[in-house]
Amino acid sequence: PPRACDNYWEEFKHCVSWGNGFHHYYTYGTVPSCQQWKNDYNDCREWEERRSAEAKEALLKSERDRVAEQGNFTPVWELRKEPPGDWHLPLNQEKPQDS
Amino acid sequence: MFTSQFKCEIMLKLAMQTSPYAKLLLSAMNSSGCKVIRDRHFACEDCDGSVSGGFDVASSQIVLCQNNIHQQSHMNRVVTHELIHAFDHCRAHVDWFNNLRHLACSEECVRGRALRSILAVRKISAEEAQKIVDEVFDSCSNDHAPFGRIPHGSKDAEFAYRDHESRDRYNTNL
């Protein structure tokens, strides 16, 4: 499975915790929905212990949905293809800094 | 007597070793081709005013204001904050000086704090700043890189760090 099964359970417990609910409500104005983590945990165990094909599919779909949701925005800036060329240059080759 | 520079160096080391936010950012930067070397990319200095630190794009260096950081928790926050700027600089073409949208995005995406940061850094009117922050808010607040989530507390940060370390397993299994 993409994650260790216990991870899903820990995410579920964290999701339903008071602290997380507070932050979620403050940020989004809604209570968080946590059931999916629990479902994922159960599917993960089914997959590992009983090699259930349905559980595997359900879990993979759930994770793919998660990934898709995260990519759902237009970036504000253009991503680089390579890291900045001057990142590793030694300091005395850089432009002089203000003190 | 411990000089403020010495204390700053110690707190910096501790932040890099123990803060899950910092550790995740360091690891993400490493993967992005911007490996962070403490002696090269961090500098403890005395600063004017009450500023805690800054990211100097020209020298690719994070400045920590040793005269203004006195507690480890503060150091952890400053290191994390500046590493986020460095990370954004590493992965994107951020126009720090001319593009206020970029600046708004790289500052914390809680509206109020982004607003105050922009006003502090650039002399523009409050309405202009508010307008910019509103425009970029939806886009920026969905960009959780490299955390994968909004880390409200250290538990979030620990989970984010764990996910980041296991990302190979995650990606191959999808």
UniProtKB/TrEMBL annotation, chain A:
Give the start-end ranges of region Disordered: 78-99
Which domain of life, per UniProt?
A: Eukaryota
Where does it primarily localize? other
Q: Which Pfam families match?
A: PANTS-like
Name the species this protein comes from: Dissostichus mawsoni
The family assignment reads: Belongs to the UPF0545 family.
The protein's name is: Synaptic plasticity regulator PANTS
The protein's location, in the record's own words, is: Synaptic cleft
Name a single GO cellular component: synaptic cleft
TrEMBL record, chain B:
Q: Which GO terms describe its molecular function?
A: metal ion binding; metalloendopeptidase activity
For biological process, the GO terms are:
mitochondrial protein processing; mitochondrial proton-transporting ATP synthase complex assembly
List the EC numbers from the record.
Answer: 3.4.24.-
Which family, according to UniProt?
A: Belongs to the peptidase M76 family.
Annotated Gene Ontology cellular components are: mitochondrion
Name the chain's protein. Answer: Mitochondrial inner membrane protease ATP23
Domain of life here? Eukaryota
Key words of the record: Hydrolase, Metal-binding, Metalloprotease, Protease
